[in-house]
Amino acid sequence: MSNNRTLGGLALLMALALAAFGWGLVAPFAYEPVGPRAFPMITAVLIGICGTLLLIRGGGAVEGNAPGVNLGVLAIAATLLVYAMVFTTLGFVISTAAMSLVVARIFGATWAQATISAAVLSVGAFLLFDHALDVVLPTGLLGDLL
Amino acid sequence: MDTLAFLMTGFAVAMTPTNLALAALGAVVGTMVGVLPGLGPVNAVAMLVPVVFALGLPPESSMILMAAIYIGSEYGGRISAILINVPGEASAVMTALEGYPLSRQGKAGIALSLSAWTSFVGSMLATVGIVVAAPILSKWALAFGPVEYVGLMVFAFACLTGLLADEPVKALLAVGIGLALSVVGIDPNSGVYRYTFDMPNLIDGIQFATIVIGLFAISELMLLYESHKEGIPTKVERMGRSLFNWAEVKLTTAATLRGSVIGFFIGLLPGAGGTVGSALAYSTEKRVVERTDPKGNRFGNGDLRGLASVEAANNSASNSNFIPMLTLGIPSSGTTAIMLGVLTLYNITPGPVLFTAQPELVWGLIASLFIGNVMLLAMNIPLVGVFARMLSVPAWVLVPFIVVVSAVGVYSGKSASFDLVLMTVIGVIAYWLRRMHVPMAPLVLGFVLGKILEQNLRRALSLSAGDVQILWSSWIAIVLWGAAIAMLVIPQLLARRRLKALHLQQYREDRE
Questions:
Q1: Contacts of B202 in chain A (CB under 8 A)
Q2: Are strands B185-186 and B193-194 parallel, antiparallel or unpaired?
Q3: pLDDT averaged per 10 residues in sequence order, chain A, 146 residues
């Protein structure tokens, strides 16, 4: 699947991006000999050197996942991303219940198990964090209910 | 006698009700995450970063809590290694070698209680070692200016790159990525926005909590899914007699002491920790037993001496790890790197001045190590069955819980869902990097030290009006740069020589 060449290539890309977007970082008035550009450039060079070494050496192929595993990992990543995006709009309780349901199913829970754990976790965590620990969480759709 | 007075202040800090409660909490949480294979102290500590701020804990309390989790996990890691042959922690790999055969023979109870005892001995000896050694090491700290700091940080990166990683290039790449991430945001010296891409959420940089939770907790979920699919055996053998007897203590005392000493000195090396220490202690003990007691040698089939030395060594090493961390600001693991990061969030600069600038914090932490270890021993012998039951918590309960705690933690910093998206993206990238064997500890350290390194570099070059030669203008700086180069080069040479010897041996065997 992927190996050191992939990693090296991506590292080189990152170094180039750092350098390209960093080249214009010049202070309008310079009070010191070293401005805001130098350090990002040093970093880009460091990453670039590592990337080049990895590209040249190659090897280090990583075993691919068993079939189906990649799909699960992808599903987890997608669920988390959606969770992150609806967190404030839907509110903590609803989004957490939905996320928990899906994630529990991915990890092999039955529908009943997943539903119960989602209900307990979403309400329990809201009470714990918002009410007991004073971390203000978004109420979202449930608005005034909470 | 100064040291004793400082230690007493330390105990005064550690014995306040809050700090005692935090140490106990940390010990319980640490043991629990240590038991769970895949979930380690680094994930727990990462998820705690925002919590300690939300609770408004003072720096010493945060450090006490996190340190208790760190040492607790070493106690917990041995439980799953012994009971189901799956090390809960990387440093418990060696524990499984002798511990699991013992539990197959129905001696799990003895193995668990004895290893708790030797863990305790190793930890306590190492903590005494910290009290003796750390003040001496921190004496020469006062001569540090910007020039020396630059050298020190380069040395810190070199340590983690050369010693911790099998593939130094990947570790160096990780440092680079960490440094790059630390640059994001407004440059305090010039007011220039760097890599913010017009996103207001990036102006004051990426939150530390977002980075560490993404790197450790989120990527871990995906790794957990892999191992969940492979299926982890959770069948627990019969425990048998639950407490070791006097004869067993006598048999293992020498091994325990040897393991503790080896672990202590390995832990002193910045960058090396429990994993290296326990491996070295195991092979040493095996050789000693083969020579002195060939008849009683049961190595590989459950030798108590092997178990004792390994557990003493890895606990001793993870305690003495605090010496390079506190005196130089060089962490040896992801967990201690996060602890350093938390210090910087309190505006405390990790490094040689820590002992003089923050005596209460440092000595409170050291005193709490003594207290934490006593608590852990008291908990681990009678309650081992309770902790072992953690192994039967299903992943579908655990994983949503981790997601929620992570999300709340990240969200609480700025109340912006932007950080949640960023956390997820970082988590996915970190998952791939970890699969590619890119170590995470150097990445965290790069991020933590990035800003301090840049500031000191620019300050040093301001002093010399841009002349780079100032970076090696003092003897301390020269020593640090030399040591950094040695750290990068020597492990490479040693590895190459070992490889050559291996080839030579192969060649000879082939000819015979």
A1: none
A2: antiparallel
A3: 84 93 80 85 94 86 78 93 92 93 92 94 90 80 70
CA-to-CA distance for B148 and B136, rounded, in angstroms?
19
First and final C-alpha spacing in chain A? 48
What's the mean per-residue pLDDT of chain B? Answer: 85
Region of B191 on the Ramachandran plot (φ > 0 left; ψ -120 to 50 alpha; else beta) = left
Chain segment A15-40, per-residue pLDDT in tens: 999 999 888 888 777 677 888 888 99
The Cα B402–Cα B54 span in angstroms is 18
Q: CB under 8 Å to B131, separation ≥6 — which residues?
A: B3, B7, B366
**How far apart, in whole angstroms, are the C-alpha atoms of residue A12 and residue A32?**
30
Q: How far apart are the first and last CA of chain B?
A: 64
Spatial contact of B231 and A69, defined as CB atoms under 8 Å apart:
no
Residue B507: predicted pLDDT = 65
- Report yes or no: B172 at the A interface, CB cutoff 8 Å: yes
DSSP string, B53-87: HHTT--HHHHHHHHHHHHHHHHHHHHHHHHHHS--
The chain-wide mean pLDDT, for chain A, equals 87
* Contact assessment for residue B410 and residue B61, using Cβ atoms and an 8 Å cutoff: no
| Residue B72 tokens, joined | 């607790």
Q: Which residues contact B22 (CB under 8 A, 6 or more apart)?
A: B57, B61, B64, B65, B68
Q: Which H or E run contains B193?
A: strand B193-194
CB atoms within 10 A of CB A37: 19
Tell which of A4, A46, A99, A130 to mutate to test the B interface (max B CBs under 10 Å). A46
**Under 8 Å between Cβ of A111 and B396:** no
Task: Calculate the CA dihedral of residues B175, B177, B178, B183 and round it to 10 degrees.
Answer: 130
User: Considering only CB atoms, which chain B residues are within 8 Å of A77?
Assistant: 222, 424, 427-428, 431
- A143 HSE (CA, 13 A, CB side): 2
Are A62 and B399 an interchain contact pair (Cβ–Cβ within 8 Å)?
Answer: no
Rounded distance between C-alpha atoms, residue B179 and residue B451, angstroms: 8
CA distance A85 to chain B (A): 6
- The whole-angstrom separation of Cα B192 and Cα B184 is 11
Which residues of chain B, if any, have pLDDT below 50? none
Please return the burial class of B468, using the count of CB atoms within 10 Å of its CB with bins 0-12, 13-18 and 19+: exposed
Q: How far is A127 from chain B (nearest CA, A)?
A: 12
The answer to whether B417 contacts chain A (CB < 8 Å) is yes
Query: What whole-number distance in Å separates Cα of residue B268 and Cα of residue B177?
Result: 27
Judged by CB atoms closer than 8 Å, whether chains meet at A62 and B436 is answered as: yes
Any long-range contacts for B230-238 (C-beta under 8 Å, 24+ apart)? B230/A66, B232/B37, B232/B84, B232/B86, B233/B84, B233/B85, B233/B86, B234/B84, B234/B391, B234/B392, B235/B84, B236/B83, B236/B84, B236/B108, B236/B388, B236/B391, B237/B83, B237/B103, B237/B104, B237/B106, B237/B108, B238/B106, B238/B108
Task: Spell out the domain ranges in chain B.
Answer: 2-511
Whole-number Cα distances in Å, A143 to A90, A94, A138, B359 = 9, 11, 8, 48
Cβ contacts below 8 Å, chain A against chain B, sum to 195
Which residues is B186 bridged to in the sheet? Answer: B193
**What local confidence, expressed as pLDDT, does residue B512 receive?**
53
Contact B225 A96 (CB under 8 A): no
pLDDT of res. B124: 94
